[in-house]
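At this stage, I put together one protein's amino acid sequence and its C-alpha cells, which the following lines show:
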Amino acid sequence: MPAEDVPVPQGPADALAAVVALRRLADQLEDAAVEQAMRAGWGWPEVAEALGVTRQAVHKKHAKRLIAAGVTLRRRQ
C-alpha cells in the first residue's frame, strides 16, 4: 500500500493510539508465528533469521512463553 493510501489519524492522540494498537497486533502476530514455527520443528537460528534478529534476542523474548504453552524446544547439538 503506497504511503499516500494510508489513512492519517486526525490529531496526535489518535495517531499515537494507532501506533500502540499496531504494535500490539504486531506482537500478537509474532508470538503466534514463532510458536507455529517452533511447533513445526524450527530452531532458534531459523526463527531469528526470519525475524531479522539474533538467536539470543528471539530466545529471550519467546522462550518462557513457549515453555509455558507446552512447546518442546529444540536444543543445540
